């Protein structure tokens, strides 16, 4: 490892990696938006609900919390409010449809919503349900958005808004639950106590789908949660975990809870399909995609899968709670390197590109429909 330091920039760390995996991944990375040919016969409309995994700037717009460079450095060249060096998975999915990236619902300046809106806010969970910006609150915001759209349509402003009849054609994406589990562990709850909370978390997700369904939504795309125990943040902060590490170096108990949550979410989707006969509800196995990336990182051209690119502290995790990415003292890996984790919690653009390509393959979706099914 070599390091270079200047007085006007954070420490930049560079890590070597073999040429072939890097070249292999670079080819995939360039082609990701084109891996799935979009067969949309009408302009796609997407409404997204979730947390920081899919927040495209809501945390800045809604709470004014600064998200500074180097966030956004890779693709945008500036911070956009995404907790990533570039694009998120949802950005790649939008690009696969040749539609613009989703604007945060709470962005008041310069935003239009021709292809939907993003209600996801970093830090969001399902419970408690009446605390901004819980999933329940996000769904209530959507309901207001839809009602307000109808009011504006009545004034003849159809060119500025989504037509009311298009809400039934839209895709409703949900990616939430990670913070419910992570926060439970952070508060000192035991494995058993966290497991007991899972049914309540799942009930909120089911209620969200049913509330949107009752408002005309018919096409849903639900992501399960990733391997929580493989996040550098959790590995750095958890205590007495040496006997709880699996063969990949991840915290077994955390991942076991994630798998229990995911099995419950899969079952919820099965129930919803039987209760909403005219709806399509797609369950996407993000856990398997992300664990495969971590377990086989070298094959995909990545290095140090359990270490944050941007943070503080160096190996093995480069995470320090008091010195987070973008704040004084942080260190960031060289832009040419390939890390899985960006800041200890969120994935890099390079990782997100690969994850998106796996989603678009339909191999991890139940039922195995293409992402553009809703706009054909």
TrEMBL record:
Keywords: Glycoprotein, Hydrolase, Membrane, Signal, Transmembrane, Transmembrane helix. This is GDSL esterase/lipase. InterPro entries: GDSL, SGNH_hydro_sf, SGNH_plant_lipase-like. The chain crosses the membrane at residues 12-37. GO terms for molecular function: hydrolase activity, acting on ester bonds. The keyword Coiled coil does not apply. It holds the Pfam family Lipase_GDSL. Belongs to the 'GDSL' lipolytic enzyme family.
């Amino acid at each position: 490892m070599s390091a270079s330091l200047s007085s006007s920039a954070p420490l930049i760390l560079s890590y070597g990696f073999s040429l072939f995996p890097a070249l292999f991944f670079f080819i995939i990375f360039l082609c990701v938006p084109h891996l799935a040919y979009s067969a949309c016969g009408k302009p796609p409309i997407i409404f997204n609900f979730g947390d920081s995994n899919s927040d495209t700037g809501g945390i800045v717009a809604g709470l004014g919390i600064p998200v500074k460079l180097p966030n956004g450095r890779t693709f945008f060249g500036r911070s956009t409010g995404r907790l990533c060096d570039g694009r998120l998975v949802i950005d790649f999915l939008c690009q696969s449809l040749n539609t613009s990236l989703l604007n945060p619902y709470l962005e008041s300046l310069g935003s239009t919503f021709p292809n939907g809106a993003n209600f996801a806010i970093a830090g969001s969970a399902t419970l408690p349900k009446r605390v901004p910006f819980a999933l329940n609150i996000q769904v209530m915001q959507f309901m207001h958005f839809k009602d307000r759209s109808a009011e504006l349509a009545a004034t003849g402003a159809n060119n500025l808004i989504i037509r009311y009849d298009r809400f039934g054609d839209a895709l409703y994406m949900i990616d939430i639950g990670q913070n419910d589990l992570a926060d439970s562990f952070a508060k000192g709850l035991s494995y058993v106590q966290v497991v007991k909370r899972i049914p309540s978390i799942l009930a909120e997700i089911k209620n969200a789908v049913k509330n949107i369904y009752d408002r005309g939504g018919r096409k849903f795309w639900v992501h399960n949660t990733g391997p929580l125990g493989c996040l550098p943040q959790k590995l750095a902060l958890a205590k007495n975990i040496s006997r709880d590490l699996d063969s990949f170096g991840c915290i077994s108990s955390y991942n076991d809870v994630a798998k229990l949550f995911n099995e419950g979410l899969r079952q919820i989707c099965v129930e919803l399909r039987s209760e909403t006969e005219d709806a399509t509800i797609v369950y996407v196995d993000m856990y398997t995609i992300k664990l495969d990336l971590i377990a086989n990182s070298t094959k995909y051209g990545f290095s140090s899968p359990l270490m944050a690119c941007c943070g503080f502290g160096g190996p093995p995790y480069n995470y320090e709670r008091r010195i987070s990415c973008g704040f004084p003292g942080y260190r960031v890996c060289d832009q040419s390197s390939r890390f899985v984790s960006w800041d200890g919690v969120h994935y890099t653009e390079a990782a997100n590109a690969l994850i998106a390509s796996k989603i678009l393959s339909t191999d991890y979706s139940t039922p195995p429909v293409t992402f553009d099914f809703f706009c054909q």
